[in-house]
Amino acid sequence: MSPQVSIIMGSTSDLPVMEKAAQFLDEMAVPFELLALSAHRTPAPVEEFARTAAERGVRVIIAGAGMAAALPGVIAAQTTLPVIGVPIKGSLLDGLDALFSILQMPPGIPVATVAVNGALNAAILAVQMLALSDPELSAKFRNYKAALAQKIEKANRELAEVHYSYKTN
Ligand code: RP5
User: Fold this and answer.
1) pLDDT single digits (tens) 81-111
2) Is 3.10.20.600 the CATH classification of the domain at 5-134?
3) pLDDT tens-digit profile of 1-38?
């Protein structure tokens, strides 16, 4: 099946973060592709990717990059597909450099930016977009949300069993 989501990263050194997105898409059975492309090191292949993604059937792009992270914005400039940006923490500036590079897009070219290293949330957002026109995926995602709530309910039942004795001086 052709990929519905492209997960792009600036370097394979971003993979330990970006694979969280791949794992979630796997869990939701969403077909995806995983590519390393760099706005600075491989500008021509980035342009080719961005210009042809929609016609290949891709519906959402997740792009992660660190440092002077131009990749998500450069892709967004050359496609009408929604682009979700993942700032990667990897430099002396703790990911703030990538966060601001990805977040501060000029009017007209948005990149939906998640938290630093927030690849899981990027994949969740992509699934939410796809689920708007896919009832089966929407049902799967509702189950995922319900499981998150059950986790907190369980945690509260466990906390109710914890008793402290307080000492007063
Ligand atoms: C960015 O530079 C990449 O996205 C990566 O986060 C960072 C460092 O890349 P490598 O030097 O590890 O290839 O473009």
Assistant:
1) 999 999 999 878 999 999 999 999 999 999 9
2) no
3) 899 999 999 999 999 999 999 999 999 999 999 999 99
Written as six digits, the tokens of 28 are 């939701």
**Protein residue closest via CA to atom 7 of ligand 1:** 66
CA–centroid distance, 16 to ligand 1, in Å, is 12
Domain ranges for the chain = 5-134
Q: Which tokens go with 148? A: 């998150």
90 in contact with ligand 1, CB cutoff 6 A = yes
Q: Is 65 in the pocket of ligand 1 (CB under 6 A)?
A: yes
* 0.85 exceeded by pTM: yes
CA of 64 to the centre of ligand 1 (A): 10
Using only C-alpha atoms, what is the Rg of the chain? Answer: 19
Assess whether the C-beta atom of 88 lies below 6 angstroms from ligand 1.
yes
Quote helix, strand, coil % in the chain, to nearest 5: 50, 15, 35
DSSP 8-state assignment for residue 21: H
Q: 13 CB under 6 A from ligand 1?
A: yes
Q: Phi-psi region for residue 29, left (φ > 0), alpha (ψ -120 to 50) or beta?
A: left
